[in-house]
Design brief:
With 151 residues, the protein is an alpha/beta fold. The protein is 36% helix and 21% strand. Strands 1-2-6-5-3-4 form a 6-stranded parallel beta sheet, sandwiched between helices. Helix 1 packs across helix 2 and helix 4 runs parallel beside helix 6. It is globular, with a radius of gyration of 14 Å. The C terminus is likely disordered.
Amino acid sequence: MNYHPSITASQVYKSTFTAHSTTLSEAVGQTIEVSYSAEQQTQLAYFLRLLKKANNENRWIMFVGYDALIDKSLLKNAGIDINKVLLLKASEHQSKHNLLVKALEMGNCSAVIVAGDIEQFDTPLVNSAAKNGKAMAFVLNKNLTTHLTVH
């Protein structure tokens, strides 16, 4: 496989300012890793800022599975319209990877969020679906400190 490595929420957020861009087009087609713990929440803060930007589009923000869902008050405090947030419940017959791909491809979402290991979701199929749907694909890795990258 010859595709680009995943990027972090802080890298994406900071690139929107270095390029003097107000769009998130540079994040489309890349799987964005958000690793955080109770002690280290820098990536979570950048993630919420990116979600707020995505929320400005006239599309949904979708969480795939309850494990990806973030506290409603945290979303509200970040300025995200809760009425534009959806939860897609994963069944035992569908993998979260396939649900992520389908949600991204539909083009109805500006951001789709799933919880798990980045290696599981940073695939050419997910990146292609994100590019085709013009959406951001986030992979939340909660309570993990070994992969934290702070820039």
